[in-house]
Structures are given as C-alpha cells and as structure tokens.
Amino acid sequence: MTEPNCPFCEPQARVLRENDNAIVILSNPRKVPGHFLALPKRHVEKPWDLKPQELQSIFELIFFVEQKILGKLGDGVDIKQNYRPFLKQGRLKVDHVHFHVYPRSMEDYLYQVSEKYETDLFAELDDLERKEVEKLLQ
Ligand SMILES: [Zn+2]
After folding, report:
1. What separation in Å is there between the alpha carbon of 42 and the centre of ligand 1?
2. At 8, is the secondary structure helix, strand, or coil?
3. Which of 34, 54, 61, 77 is the most buried (most CB within 10 A)?
4. Cα gap 14→32, rounded to integer Å
C-alpha cells in the first residue's frame, strides 16, 4: 500500500536494514550524523493505526540501531515520533509515520543549539492542572 508523493513509500535506494514490516533509512536532511528513521513499509499516517506486528518490527529495528550507534556516535540515544497534522508535508515533515533515532552525548550539538534552556520549561504540576489533564484519560 503506497501513497503518491510520499518519499517514504518508495525508499528502496535508501534502505539500510529491513525486516518483515519495517525499514531503516538515514534522515535527509538530518540533525546530526547518525540520525536514522525507522518506519513501517505500509503507508500509515496515524501512529495508533500501526498494527502490533508493525510496531514490533519498527522497535526491533530501533533497538538494533541503538545498539550499533551507542559508544560509536554517542553515549546515549533519543527516540522521537512526531504527530503534527497541522503542518503541511514537505522536506522537513513527512506524513508517513516514522521514528527518529539519533545519538546523544552530554552537552552535545543538539543540546547546545536547541535544548540548553529546556530545563527552564519544567514547572511544578499543580492540582487543578493535574485533575483537568487526568480527566482526558478517563
Ligand atoms: Zn508513505
């Protein structure tokens, strides 16, 4: 099942590793060297539409990549999945569900350019907010 104009539905030349339901490619553009993407072979736009076997295949590849890059490209790894339907598909945003996997190290480039002040965002959770947000899961 492929979607016209989806760069991840026909990525054959970019596939570095695959299993039954998922593939790994390098992100291009990338944030840092060793920025991989793990994604289902089937075109899926909403993460909750992934089938259990697709999730399992994706995470098998994520864990494989993590172990390969740890100690070589970084001392840790971030895994990130964005769902942002409010953005139009383009070079920096592809609708086909994908998980970013990239190496991290203490005070690395990503920290220096975009996360240095992120700890300032943390605030104490107050009871009113907690109750309002907890209601969403009931
Ligand atoms: Zn696609």
Report:
1. 7
2. coil
3. 61
4. 17
CA dihedral 57, 62, 68, 72 (to 10 degrees): 170
1 CA → ligand 1 middle, Å: 8
The pairing of strands 36-40 and 99-104 is antiparallel
Residue 2 Cα to ligand 1 midpoint, Å, equals 6
The arrangement of secondary structure in 12-135, i.e. its CATH architecture, is 2-Layer Sandwich (3.30)
**Beta pairing class for 76-80 and 36-40:** unpaired
Q: Could you count the other beta carbons within 10 Å of the beta carbon of residue 119? A: 7
